[in-house]
């Protein structure tokens, strides 16, 4: 298997998490990325008494429907759609986030992500990762070792995973360290080039 190569060093800057729990998601705003499930999970956490900020970077055809979902859920001040971000902005978001969430699902037409590069970038940055048991994601994110895996489309399980990372600093730190190590071992540009 030849994994996407990334420049691990570019994502190795010192993390600077804010006091507020912040979830960051990034990707094209299309069905298979599952961002509607992230918004639903944030609403569940809010209803359970845990307020987290959610910042979603990217643009795409689901922008307006996601905005409508936010408004209908009363999350317009808690969830922010950031639009397209450059690499420097992405690194900044990853440095400040409590965790990175990419809740991939199978689209109605059967389309799924193979292995989103942004998962590797988040791990390389030391940001704890939550994603779904779908396609190649579990090859990089080892559940409870280098991140947390949830079932695609399960908003309750996604909310529980976010709560766990926010509420258990020791777990967040362990996933941060092991995720970074996994990115270095499996996905550094030099190793990817040697395997091609």
Structure description:
It is a single chain. With 196 residues, this protein is α/β, with parallel strands linked by helices. The chain contains eight helices and six strands. It has helices spanning 35-47, 63-72, 87-96, 117-125, 137-140, 155-167, 169-187, 189-195; strands spanning 22-26, 53-57, 79-83, 99-102, 129-132, 148-150. Helix 5 (137-140) links the parallel strand 5 and strand 6 (148-150). The protein is globular and about 40 Å long.
**What value does the average pLDDT take?**
90
Number of strands: 6
Largest beta sheet, briefly? 6 strands, parallel
Strand content: 5-15%
Number of helices: 8
Question: Could you provide a short overview of the structure?
Answer:
43% of the residues lie in helices and 13% in strands.
What's the topology here?
Blueprint: E1 22-26, H1 35-47, E2 53-57, H2 63-72, E3 79-83, H3 87-96, E4 99-102, H4 117-125, E5 129-132, H5 137-140, E6 148-150, H6 155-167, H7 169-187, H8 189-195
Parallel strand pairs: 1-2, 1-4, 2-3, 4-5, 5-6
């Amino acid at each position: 298997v030849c994994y996407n190569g990334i420049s691990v060093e570019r994502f190795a800057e010192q993390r600077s998490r804010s006091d507020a729990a912040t979830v960051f998601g990034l990707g094209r705003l299309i069905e298979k990325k599952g961002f509607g499930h992230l918004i639903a999970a944030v609403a569940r956490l809010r209803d359970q008494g845990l307020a987290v900020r959610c910042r979603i970077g990217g643009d795409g055809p689901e922008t307006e429907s996601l905005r409508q979902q936010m408004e209908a859920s009363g999350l317009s001040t808690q969830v922010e759609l950031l639009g397209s971000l450059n690499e420097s902005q992405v690194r900044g978001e990853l440095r400040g986030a409590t965790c990175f969430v990419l809740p991939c699902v199978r689209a109605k037409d059967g389309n799924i992500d193979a292995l989103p590069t942004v998962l590797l970038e988040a791990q390389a940055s030391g940001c704890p990762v939550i994603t779904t048991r779908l396609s190649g994601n579990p090859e990089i994110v080892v559940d409870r070792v280098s991140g947390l895996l949830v079932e695609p489309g399960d908003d309750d399980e996604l909310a529980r995973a976010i709560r766990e990372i926010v509420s258990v600093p020791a777990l967040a730190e362990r996933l941060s360290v092991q995720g970074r190590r996994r990115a270095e071992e499996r996905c550094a540009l030099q190793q990817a080039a040697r395997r091609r």
